[in-house]
Input
Amino acid sequence: MTRPPRSMARRRSVAVLAIGATALSGGALFGPSTSSASSHREAPYVANDPAIDNTDVYAFTSPDNASTATLIANWAPFSEPAGGPNFFPWATDAQYNINIDNNGDAKPDITYRWTMKDVDVRGTTKHGDTVGGTFLYNDGPVNSFNDPHLLFKQTYNLDKITYTAAGVENPPVRILTDKEVAPSNVGEASMPNYAALRQEAVTSGTTGALKSYVGQADDPFFLDLRIFDLLYGANLKEVGFDTLKNFNVNTISFQVPKADLAANGDATKNPVVGVWSTTDRYTTRTLAATDAAGVESKGTGGFTQVSRLGNPLVNEAVVPAQLKDYFNRSTPANDGQFLGKVQDPEVPYLIKNIYNIPNPNETAAGKNRPDLVETFLTGISKKAAAGTDYGSLAKGSVSADLNSLDLNAVANGANPVAQAPAEYLRLNMAVPVTANPNRLGVLGGDFQGYPNGRRLGDDVIDIAIQALEGVLVSDQPAAVKTAVSGLGDSVNKNDKAFLSTFPYIADPWAGSSPHVGQTQLGYRQFFVGQRGYIDAHVGNISVPQPGSFAELWSVQPGNKEVKIATLPLNAAGTGTAVYRIKYSAPTIANLFFKVFVNKGSAVGYNNGLVTQVQSR
Amino acid sequence: VLRHLALLPLVLLAACSGTNAPARASFSQPPASAFAAGPCSAVAPAVLALGKDAHDLAGGKEPSPATSASLKTNQQLIVAVQPGLDPALAPSFSDLVIKVGLVRIRTDTNTYVSSLAPSLMASYSAVVKACTTGPAPTATP
Output
């Protein structure tokens, strides 16, 4: 895991920010005229019902098939790979939805709905000649979906739902029937070739243009969730550890022709779509009575929405606690009610309280945060900035045409569809695929990235922190803007590489992988450059174990990593260590530590951030 | 006049602090006794400590835990005297508090870059100048 030296990364990010800022202030970008636009346990209810807890939604032009868009939605946060014997099934009494608004009225025009079914033979499994049942997920190595050793599995149906002009659901159209859900990745002994199992679960539609994958995956979101603890504790130190490393989610990855998503089937004239996921549960759940054998709990009374996700972090860090469950059952059409929360977010107050840096909400241009309103509620367009389509209360401040649905032909012309502010991802499908994506998306000058849709590698935490701290607020003092433009949580990429082809999202961690408590650790490293030497310090391991040790590495030109020294820590692993590198002349070095923790036979490690330091 | 002379090397130092030159002239600061009575005098040790931190950072040093602690502690001392500051002093004090905050947040998030140091140094110099050469500052009730 090699990271660029910090100074290089900084120079690059400053440069691209300048490009992005110039372009964003420069006028039309990718409107129709050019033919060519997190949330883990964030609310009380879903925190107790992980199977239906939406974590993230992604929407992007498929990098290897530009005539299609890929929509990904995830559930079941913090799925511990070895979490058997039941592992992580989808709820069978729920509806998993990905919704599309393609005309800007903040109502769904298309809903793709996945419903799951159990295929469970554990109760009829024989031991010898006796039907005794078993607790096992599988009773031998599983090599295919239909392998008799796989005792519990699931299938799904996929329906497409359209709506009448009055917003009533038309009868669903079945697209896929009884397709395989990739099972949880139990471990190498149970599933020696999980990749093949997973591939078996990649399904194409009858025309071949549509693809669907339902199953487990590595959680593609990357961040240091401890930032919340640190905000509570008035200290942001120790960021830099991917809290979601080694955890899985349940994912739906869905690829569909752009024309299927666009208004009037025309992705050229109507390239911008709004995308959000929802999950529905039965309104009433009847639990089996005490001592009642042979019966199960069951749901009745029709479905109601219990989880919702569009933009990352909105319900997590913008909506206050008392409204979080309500937000999850609300619909975009009523999102005007949350305008005040977007206009006056809490995070800048917390940051100001800790660091005494200005709250961008307090500047003339930052008042009522038109930059955030445009990012989250209207999309970015000149008309949104002018208040033309969304009204003065939802007026934006970034005058550029990027991803507002008011750019679509159906929002203009003789009978334009009235536009409404709504919180969902907005993807301008006309923006071409970026060859070398920038993790900061639009802030990094890469217009295919967030908030224009969201790609798996977009670093939405860094983007959100920078945006909340006013990087797009025009009258922020230059020194402040420069400083906040480099803010982040020091977790800049996912723990697993994403795939270049469908389903793009990385394979899940196996139950047999070194995982929580084995590989996850935080620690402190710092370097002090003095005349003739650099002292490299390491220690304060978060999960110290006897035998813990650190390796000091240097990044040489060409990103070649060279080990300099191995430093044992004390017997308990709780100690610190210092290594002095001597230089005969002033030297700039790029250094980092790898810290290893022994636990049983598994050896886990974590890398520190590459740090540039100089001797004098 | 003496105050001006005492500040001269400081100003020159600030002017040169935009580079990562490894070898630097020794750092000269006015004594705390040169700070005007009132809030300036009250925070003189904090300001001077921040100046030392700024100088170290401008010289290319990475913020150490000790530097982080110093920045936080001394920033809070200055924040404490901000209410009721004379308008002649308020802008420079406010600017220094902000610049320290920016270095702190970038340090705590492991995103510190050395280009932040010259700005901190300049803000420190402005406070020193205001407190040692400006009109006699007083705290208003």
Residues 1-22, 136-141 of chain B have pLDDT under 50 and may be disordered. Chain B touches chain A at residues 20, 22-23, 59-62, 64-65, 68, 75, 79, 97-102, 104-106, 108-111, 113-116, 119 (CB under 8 Å). Residues 50 and 71 of chain B are 6 Å apart (CA to CA). The helical segments of chain B are 2-15, 39-58, 65-81, 90-108, 116-133.
